[in-house]
Amino acid sequence: MSLYELERDGEIQELVRVLRESDNERVRTRAAELLGNFEGHDDRRDAVNALVQAAQGDSSSVTAAAIDSLDELGEGAIERLIGEMAGVELGGDAADWVTAKAFVQALSADVPELRMAAANGLGRLGQADTVPQLAERFDDADPRVRARAARSAGKIGDSRATGPLESLLTDPKGAVRREAAEALGNVGNRQALQALLPMYEDDDERVRRIAVGAFGNFGNGRPVGYLVEALSDESAAVRRTAVYSLVELLSNVPTERSHDIRDTVVEKLANTDDRGVVVPLVEILEESTQAAQRRNTAWLLGRATSDRERDRVIDGLVEALADDDRMLRQFAATSLAELGGPDNMVERRLLPVVQDATVDPQVRGQAIFTLGKVGGERSRKALDKLIDDTEEDVIRKKAFSAVSKLGGRG
User: Fold this and answer.
1) What does the CA dihedral 298, 206, 264, 274 come to, rounded to 10 degrees?
2) Among its keywords, does the record have Repeat (predicted)?
3) Between the CA atoms of 294, 297, 299 and 301, what dihedral angle is there, to the nearest 10 degrees?
4) What separation in angstroms does the CA of 6 have from each of 25, 317, 383?
5) What distances in angstroms separate CA 219 from CA 125, 195, 317, one per listed residue?
6) Does position 277 have pLDDT exceeding 90, yes or no?
7) Which one, of 171, 231, 184, 233, lies nearest residue 205 by Cα?
8) In Å, what is the CA distance from 230 to each residue of 57, 142, 165, 335?
């Protein structure tokens, strides 16, 4: 049977035999790779034993494959190898500091795959005291080790990693820069976020996307200009991320600053591609579960929309009038008022809502408020009639106020 068939049929024992007995290095390497795919198999223990043995006494390619497979198998597999090499028993009742010490020791191993696995293990342990040792590997000759060490430092999230991670943002390997950017976003302190600002222009699309995605974590308006620049990025994924970050930024800044930043955002958005901004905004309004995000999105949609996407925006805002969030309903109503124009599109969409007695009075009230801002003679007549016909006091009061703004009762 071929190695593929052995893997397909779950023949771990036969794969173990091939790994131990084959004279062909390429065959042993492939067998070691395949043994990493049986995490939940009944014979997993035998696979781990064989891989630990191969990782310590075979050729470099087999060793590398065995280490990678042990790391894939999880649940103490790589700890078994590192423990044997360090002369201690890891897993079970072993204290985390003992395991961490063994992993730190393995960071200096001759085999790069073992240094990678050790870095991964330290990230899983999450002990802040190991960050300096991980940072030492940022100068590793193997870019895979640098990338794994950066990732683990980001998982731990200790501020001591900020400066060393910043140095990786100029690494010649895109994969390393990506991991460093994401790690800095996870650390999230002021220095880390500041270091990411120039990365919106990186040659690697994924680096740009990661950096732009982190800009939403700022507590001030510093990244607004960078985010608006990113709205013109050649990558649709970067542009979309920039929209999400703008909304997230508005949700994170202090309340006393949010109004100024909103005005800045709207001013900057005036010169960007409308569709590239509006479609993601509508999707946030429709799909997000975060109240602050949806409120800010509803507010922006009334001020960052041109005729090309107006129909979809109005539909989304009218739907938001029925939301459980009172503030979202208010933002949607004010944005619909901003969008009212000579074509009376907003009026046409809201009149059926106002005239439907089965619609929740709070929703109808918000629609009536908006018609008082943008309605014409048709709205005035409909609301004038509603004052006499409705049995809902709140509807009557809202309608009377709106009719007054539209010229008074006939």
Assistant:
1) -60
2) yes
3) -140
4) 18, 57, 76
5) 30, 15, 28
6) no
7) 233
8) 51, 32, 23, 25
Residue 337's CB is within 10 A of a number of other CB atoms, namely 17
Q: Is the pTM of this model over 0.85?
A: no
Sign of the torsion formed by the C-alpha atoms of 268, 274, 276 and 281:
positive
Six-digit token pair at 39? 């995490």
User: Which of the 8 DSSP states describes residue 1?
Assistant: -
Helix (H, G, I), strand (E, B) or coil at 41: coil
Task: Considering only CA atoms, give the Rg of the chain.
Answer: 30
Could you give the percent of the chain with pLDDT greater than 90? 27
Q: What is residue 39's three-state secondary structure?
A: coil
The one-letter amino acid code at 96 reads D
Instruction: Considering only residues 268 and 397, tell me which one the structure prediction assigns the higher pLDDT.
Output: 397
Q: Which of 105-119, 182-196, 245-259 has the lowest mean pLDDT?
A: 245-259
Three-state DSSP at 189 gives coil
The mean per-residue pLDDT over the stretch 164-168 comes to 95
- 3-class DSSP string for 80-112: HHHHHHHCCCCCCCCCHHHHHHHHHHHCCCCCH
Instruction: Say if residue 12 is exposed, middle or buried (CB neighbours under 10 Å; 0-12, 13-18, 19+).
Output: buried
DSSP string, 306-358: -GGGHHHHHHHHHHHTT-S-HHHHHHHHHHHHHH--TT-HHHHHHHHHHH-TT
